[in-house]
Design goal:
By secondary structure, the protein is α/β, with parallel strands linked by helices. It contains seven helices and 14 strands. The strands form three sheets. An eight-stranded mixed β-sheet has the order 2-1-3-4-14-13-12-9.
Length: about 200
């Protein structure tokens, strides 16, 4: 599945995420044509793979299963970036409709509680707190802000490289082997998002 990758060949997994066009546009601003595909062989030969997602965990996983992508994604060895819901799907499971996810990163995604946060969903700019010198965070300032829109969060765990605080700390950026994810929207996070995408493209 992973043979003959070109030097820089980005593929977005066509799992039905509503943010696909904006993610493609963000890569286009970097001079990269990110092709949309659900073809297993095409995804397998990409140098970098992106799993976008906006919406609910259960229907998103249902789409991936219907296309056999839930079996393909765990076999990929190139860098993969999950965006927003796409990041959450990398985890073991989600409280949202008690959904079994891809199981690539240990942990269970949980709903934000209004009692802790004051308002759900979490919408707007919030600060990232780096925990490590992970390559995905290279060049970011200490007070970097990113744009979030979400109601569920992944807990802080062994894959967490940056957190955000909204009624408590949650995983804002994760890295686990070749699987990476951002809870925020890099395509809507101005220079910070552009830097994250550039760092992702530098991963090998």
């Amino acid at each position: 599945m992973n043979a003959r990758r070109s030097p820089l060949d980005v593929v977005l997994i066509d799992g039905g995420g509503s943010n696909i066009a904006s993610v493609q546009a963000a890569f286009a601003r970097r001079g990269v044509n990110a092709e949309l595909s659900r073809d297993h062989e095409r995804i397998g030969r990409a140098s970098h793979v992106v799993l976008p997602g906006v919406g609910a965990a259960a229907p998103a996983m249902q789409r991936l299963r219907a296309l056999g992508l839930d079996r393909l994604i765990p076999t990929l060895t190139q860098p993969l970036l999950g965006v927003c819901l796409g990041m959450q799907l990398l985890f073991t499971s989600s409280e949202e409709s008690n959904t079994a996810c891809l199981g690539l990163i240990p942990g269970r995604v949980q709903r934000l509680l209004e009692a802790d946060c004051g308002r759900v969903p979490h919408i707007g700019w919030n600060q990232l707190q780096a925990l490590t010198d992970a390559p995905l965070l290279a060049g970011l300032e200490a007070a970097a802000y990113a744009y979030f829109v979400h109601s569920y969060v992944a807990p802080v765990g062994p894959a967490t490289v940056a957190t955000c605080d909204y009624g408590g700390a949650f995983s804002a950026v994760v890295s686990w082997r070749n699987f990476h994810g951002v809870q925020f929207h890099p395509e809507r996070s101005a220079a910070v998002g552009a830097r994250i995408l550039a760092n992702f493209l530098e991963l090998a």
